[in-house]
Amino acid sequence: MADKLEKTGVRINKAIARAGVCSRRRADELILHGAVKVNGMVTRERGLMLSPSDELVVEDRRVELRDSGSGAENFIYIMLHKPVHVVCTARDPEGRRTVLDLLREKYAGRRIYPVGRLDYFSEGLLLLTDDGELAARLTHPRFHLPKRYELLARTGTSGIPEEILNTMRNGMTLAEGDKLAPVEIRRLKLLPGRGGELVELTLYQGVNRQIRRMCRDARLTVLRLTRVGEGPLALGRLPKGRSRELTAGELAALRAAVGL
Q1: CB 153 within 8 A of CB 221
Q2: What CATH class is the domain 147-230?
Q3: Counting CB atoms within 10 angstroms of each CB, which of 37, 40, 94, 187 has the fewest?
C-alpha cells in the first residue's frame, strides 16, 4: 500500500477534514473502521501522507484532494450579509435565490459553501468558505460559538414584558420539549412608530430556529431577525446582499476560537 503513495503531501485525516467531510478526529475513526480507501485499497494508517494524484474514497464517496502545499491562505473566507428571501444552500429545487448567487464572479469555480444556516425570512451575518476543516469545527457542538442577534418584535407601547425576557434569560422549554440554555438579552430601543422593540439576544447553543420558536411560545411576533455576530466576527455596516473577505485578524481570531 505505502509504495503506491508519495511520502510528501498532506496527512490523510487532514485531507479528509479539509474537504469538509468531517473533523480530523472523526476521520481517524473512519480510517480505523476501514471506511477509507486510497487508490482503491482500504487503509488504516492514520499517519498516511497523500499527494494530489492519489484517489481518496470515504464511505464509498470520492473526495477531492487539495494540493498538499496549500495552506490557509489558499482558502476563501467570506462574510455575507444575507438578505431575507434567500436560501442558505448551493442550489434550490424551487428556483429561489441562494447565497451563492450573491457572491461576486471572482469566486466562480471555487467550491464555496455556507457554514451553518439562516432561515429564509432571517438576515445577517453568514460565513462561507471552502476550508472544510474550519467549517467542520464551526458546526460541531463542541466548538459552538456564541451568536448574537437583533430581534425586532411587535409589542405595545411599553415594550416586551420583563417576565417574557426573564423566562428566556433563565432557559425555557419549547413546546416540542427542547430545553434551552439561558439566553443573554439586552434591550436596545423602543420603536413606538413601528409598534415594536429592538433587543439583542446572545445564544450559546445551536437549536434549529431557536429564536423564532422562543417567540412563538412567548406569543411575540417577529418583525425582523438579524444575526449581527458570531464568535469574534461582527457584521458591522456591511450592506445587505454584499460580501467581503475576512481580514487576517478576523480569520486568526476565528481559528483560535475553535482551537485551530
Answers
A1: yes
A2: alpha beta
A3: 94
The structure's pTM equals: 0.76
Q: Which residue has the cell 497523500?
A: 50
Q: Provide the 10 A C-beta neighbour count for residue 161.
A: 13
pLDDT tens-digit profile of 138-191? 888 888 899 999 999 998 778 999 999 999 999 999 999 999 999 999 999 999
Show the CA angle centred on residue 148, arms to residues 88 and 113, nearest 5°. Answer: 25
Contact 69, 8 (CB under 8 A): no
What DSSP state is assigned to residue 65? P
| Pick from 73, 58, 69: nearest CA to 23 | 58
Task: State which H helix or E strand residue 128 sits in.
Answer: strand 123-129
Residues 6+ apart with CB under 8 A from 144: 204, 205, 206
The residue type found at 66 is R
Q: Which three cell numbers stand for residue 176?
A: 416540542
- CA distance to 141, 204, 237, 244, per residue, from 170 (Å): 21, 13, 31, 36
Task: State the Cα–Cα distance between residues 254 and 234, nearest whole angstrom.
Answer: 11
Residues serving a catalytic function are 119
Assign domain 2-63 one CATH number from 1.20.1250.20, 1.10.760.10, 3.40.50.720, 3.10.290.10: 3.10.290.10
